[in-house]
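A reminder from the course coordinator: this example appears on the midterm review sheet, so study it carefully.

Given structure:
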């Protein structure tokens, strides 16, 4: 009996040790350098800054631009932003720039289970991180976090606010504290910025706060930026206000043009542009606080500017605006024609200029119908043969944006085909499938051939067929599911047991077949 109990104790200890060893955590590298390493001393500093900060009355905050300097310089401005938060969050995505590591058209998403500061540990959202890391532009580069302060420095401020100043004056449990995600943006082109924004936007929900970490103008010989040498305080304010006005426009291209024109040394211009590329139409920017280190010290020889900017709105479409499964009134004939023309002209524009256009650049005036949040696939055919087909299942952006981005993807990014050449476009016919939101069904037997599009999921793999695929091929349900299983990289009969299914419907419309 004693021997059995001893063996059981050894086994339990072994399991405990294995579990403990599997937890991957990162301890902040900023303690003792950017802020006090001792909890009591750090808390006293944050107490003082928090008392001095004044928030703004902003409803439904979905994003913040926050400074990332040492707390003695920018902590008050940062707390002004955090005091403006009007609700709780289940997740906070912290997006900051890389100051020291070169990463071209890449964003690092370090994967850890927990992150530790002098105020304790917080959980990281590993599921959200895994979804990002499936995309080529996002990579787990651990060394990008080690020396990078822009994302790390936000966490003690968040811990202080959420742990000690929540609404019911009690410290939340680990499950109640928002999980965090770090994204460290490299030196990205506008195309890469838009791609990162598109992916992130698809993962946002109204329980997520996007916190963009950026200081603004770095002025003086230390930063090799001296656009003026007199009346510095007023001219800094004018320069920073100009950047804010570009941010209000919610246009990444316009903001980046301002940076190029002025040479403004905004270190987080890539994260800010990424935010601007993904903000929903219902969002609005609110300036919460502005300050400069020169104003705080009384010495403008070298000065850094700090903004806290809140964005109100909703990442998700409101219930009453959502697309119905069987809408009584779908797209009009004119709207379908507009989207087909938008897809064709977008492909031509991209092949000529190597960047996607905006509808305005192509001369389109958009109707309300094409602005609704709705997913779409764009299918290209040449002489009746498939030439490209890419889309999205879940609605994450206005329908016209889904058509615009997937027209480009179908033309140049479908891995099954070579990229479309400029002189090929005239031979292509374009078909658009505007989808309803997918819904889970209990069994494959609930799928209606010719009516339902379908998503099969099993063993971490998935594949999708649009509603028109089966009728075009003359397949019955079992044949369709067999091909769908193979498309997912599964055995042909994998659909029979252990698979789950989503179905959706589509408005399908296209051009006449081109010869």
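Designed residues:
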């Amino acid at each position: 009996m004693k021997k059995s109990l001893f063996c059981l104790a050894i086994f339990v200890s072994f399991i405990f040790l294995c579990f403990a060893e599997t937890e991957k955590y990162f301890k902040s590298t900023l303690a003792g350098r950017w802020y006090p390493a001792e909890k009591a001393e750090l808390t006293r500093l944050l107490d003082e800054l928090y008392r001095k900060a004044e928030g703004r009355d902003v409803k439904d905050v979905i994003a913040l631009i926050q400074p990332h300097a040492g707390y003695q310089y920018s902590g008050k401005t940062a707390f002004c932003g955090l005091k403006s938060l009007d609700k709780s969050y289940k997740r906070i995505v912290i997006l900051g720039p890389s100051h020291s590591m070169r990463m071209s058209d890449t964003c690092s998403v370090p994967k850890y289970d927990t992150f530790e500061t002098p105020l304790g540990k917080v959980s990281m959202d590993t599921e959200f991180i895994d979804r990002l890391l499936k995309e080529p532009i996002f990579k787990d580069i651990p060394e990008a976090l080690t020396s990078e302060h822009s994302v790390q420095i936000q966490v003690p401020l968040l811990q202080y606010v959420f742990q000690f100043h929540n609404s019911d004056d009690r410290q939340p449990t680990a499950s109640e504290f928002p999980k965090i995600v770090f994204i460290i943006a490299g030196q990205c082109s506008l195309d890469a910025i838009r791609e990162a924004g598109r992916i992130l936007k698809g993962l946002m929900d109204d329980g997520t706060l996007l916190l963009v970490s950026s200081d603004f103008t770095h002025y003086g010989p230390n930063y090799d930026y001296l656009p003026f040498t007199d009346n510095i305080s007023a001219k800094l304010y004018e320069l920073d206000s100009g950047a804010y006005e570009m941010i209000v426009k919610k246009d990444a291209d316009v903001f980046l043009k301002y940076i190029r024109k002025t040479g403004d040394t905004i270190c987080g211009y890539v994260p800010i542009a990424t935010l601007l590329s993904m903000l929903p139409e219902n969002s609005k920017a609110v300036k919460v606080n502005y300050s400069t280190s020169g104003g705080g010290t009384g010495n403008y020889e070298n000065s850094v500017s700090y903004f806290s900017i809140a964005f109100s709105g909703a990442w998700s479409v409101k219930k009453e605006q959502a697309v119905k499964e069987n809408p009584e009134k779908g797209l009009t004939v004119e709207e379908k024609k507009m989207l087909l023309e938008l897809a064709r002209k977008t492909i031509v524009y991209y092949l000529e200029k190597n960047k996607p256009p905006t509808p305005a650049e192509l001369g389109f005036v958009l109707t309300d119908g094409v602005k609704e949040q709705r997913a779409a696939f764009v299918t290209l055919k040449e002489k009746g043969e498939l030439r490209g087909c890419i889309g999205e299942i879940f609605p994450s952006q206005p329908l016209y944006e889904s058509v615009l981005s997937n027209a480009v993807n179908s033309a140049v990014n479908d891995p099954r085909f070579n990229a479309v050449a400029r002189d090929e476009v005239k031979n292509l016919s374009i078909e658009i499938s505007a989808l309803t939101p997918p819904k889970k069904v209990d069994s494959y037997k609930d799928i209606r051939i010719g009516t339902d599009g379908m998503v099969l999921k099993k063993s971490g793999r998935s594949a999708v067929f649009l509603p028109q695929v089966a009728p075009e091929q003359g397949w019955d349900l079992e044949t369709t599911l067999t091909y769908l299983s193979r498309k997912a990289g599964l055995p042909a009969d994998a659909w029979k047991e252990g698979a789950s299914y989503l179905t959706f419907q589509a408005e399908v419309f296209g051009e006449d077949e081109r010869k």
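The chain has three domains: 17-312, 318-436, 438-515. The first helix runs from residue 2 to 22.
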